[in-house]
Design a protein that fits this description.
alpha+beta; two-stranded antiparallel sheet; 40% helix
Length: 82
């Protein structure tokens, strides 16, 4: 499923290891960028519990890596976010 999402979004399908969340940068017009539908769906599929914590934070995106050593547990990601 993630590979199918990645193909349509041109992202690396091997980036399945979530290691962080970040507030999207401020836009020149003001306000912050929004999480892409691809990033939203990928996080919902791969990290459902973490996704639940941020599902209404549309200005926060999930960061994924192809490197399994970068994988972080939800508690670590939440601690680093705070």
């Amino acid at each position: 499923m993630v590979e199918s999402l990645s193909t349509s979004d041109k992202d690396d399908p091997n980036k399945i290891y979530c290691y962080s969340v970040q507030r999207n940068p401020e836009k020149q017009s003001g306000g912050y960028g929004e999480r892409s539908p691809y990033n939203d769906n990928k996080a919902r599929l791969l990290r459902p519990a973490l996704y639940e914590k941020f599902k209404n934070e549309i200005h926060v995106s999930f960061k994924f890596s192809a490197n399994p050593k970068k994988h972080e547990e939800d508690d670590t990601i939440l601690y680093n976010w705070a």
